[in-house]
């Protein structure tokens, strides 16, 4: 479940919301959310979880990564608030924690969280701002667990710039975080062959997640079990644009 925030598509005169005033690529400016706006968004996430449960979903994932609204609150680069939703790691994470708590209490459905493991777009190294963010991330994950979150999926920002990396993009961050937290971790990003999966398992990370390889080959796990070593996916990221240009999802699909 996600809210686009400043990354939302602008239609007619709709207002685009964000934790702070953000200038968008098309020269529109996102509106800083009021406390009332924030409470409304939290309630909307809870209602979405109720609908998911009513539809038969086994659980929900809160999308706090990839620059969408909750990610904009988490990042000090886009959250410049000075109230209870800005400043410290706990304050920037407050909206996410409140969403998890309310879903756990009011809906009673399992909740997992997806969150960026890096702060600087396209930088997978643990240094400078990413190092500071890593410490913040440990705090946030602990608070997610306290709120009722059952697992955390570690992704990252700028993964389109990391396609030449020959190991899972954010495995170093996952290893460091695993030392500090006691909650199941899921790693996603750049995992596309049996060696990558084994690297994640050997690093004591609890679960492996893939997206683009499944778009390319929905039966990839069956193929791995049958002896295929590598996914066909080349991480070209065309699955982001092909649906709107040629009406298909993958360069290998006809």
Please render the helix and strand layout as text:
Blueprint: E1 17-18, E2 22-23, E3 29-32, H1 35-54, E4 60-64, H2 69-74, H3 89-92, H4 94-106, E5 111-116, H5 128-147, E6 151-155, H6 171-178, E7 185-188, H7 194-202, E8 207-209, H8 212-216, H9 220-225, H10 242-245
Parallel strand pairs: 1-3, 4-5, 5-6, 6-7, 7-8
Antiparallel strand pairs: 2-3
Task: Supply the key terms.
single chain, 254 residues, alpha/beta, TIM Barrel, 3-stranded mixed sheet, 10 helices, 37% helix, globular
What's this, in brief?
This protein has one domain: Alpha-Beta Barrel (TIM Barrel). The chain is 37% helix and 12% strand. The chain has helices spanning 35-54, 69-74, 89-92, 94-106, 128-147, 171-178, 194-202, 212-216, 220-225, 242-245, and strands spanning 17-18, 22-23, 29-32, 60-64, 111-116, 151-155, 185-188, 207-209.
Overall pLDDT score: 93
Name the strands of the widest sheet in spatial order: 4-5-6-7-8
Which structural class matches the secondary elements? alpha/beta
Overall number of domains = 1
What is the makeup of the main sheet?
5 strands, parallel
* Beta-strand segment tally: 8
The first-to-last residue Cα distance is: 30 Å
CA-based gyration radius: 18 Å
- CATH class placement: Alpha Beta
CATH superfamily: Aldolase class I
Order of helices and strands: EEEHEHHHEHEHEHEHHH
Number of helices: 10
- Helix residue percentage: 25-40%
Low-confidence stretches: none
Rough outline:
globular
| Oligomerization | single chain
């Amino acid at each position: 479940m996600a809210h686009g925030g400043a990354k939302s598509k602008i239609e007619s005169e709709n207002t685009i919301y964000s934790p702070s005033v953000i200038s968008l690529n098309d020269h529109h400016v996102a509106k800083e959310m009021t406390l009332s706006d924030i409470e409304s968004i939290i309630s909307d996430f809870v209602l979405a979880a109720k609908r998911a449960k009513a539809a038969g979903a086994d659980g929900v994932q809160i999308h706090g990564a990839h620059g969408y609204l909750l990610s904009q609150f988490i990042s000090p680069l886009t959250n410049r608030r000075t109230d209870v939703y800005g400043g410290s790691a706990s304050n920037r994470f407050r909206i996410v924690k409140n969403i998890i708590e309310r879903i756990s209490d009011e809906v009673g459905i399992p909740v997992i969280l997806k969150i960026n493991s890096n702060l600087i777009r396209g930088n997978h190294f643990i240094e400078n701002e990413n190092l500071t963010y890593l410490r913040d991330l440990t705090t946030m994950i602990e608070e997610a667990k306290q709120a009722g979150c059952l697992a955390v999926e570690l992704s990252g920002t700028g993964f389109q710039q990391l396609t030449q990396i020959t190991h899972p993009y954010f495995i170093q961050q996952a290893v460091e975080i695993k030392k500090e937290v006691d909650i199941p971790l899921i790693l996603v990003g750049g995992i596309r062959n049996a060696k990558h999966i084994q690297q994640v398992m050997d690093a004591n990370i609890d679960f492996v997640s893939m997206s683009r390889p499944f778009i390319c080959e929905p039966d990839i796990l069956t193929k791995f079990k049958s002896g295929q070593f590598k996914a066909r996916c080349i991480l070209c990221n065309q699955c982001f644009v092909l649906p709107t240009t040629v009406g298909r999802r993958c360069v290998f699909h006809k």
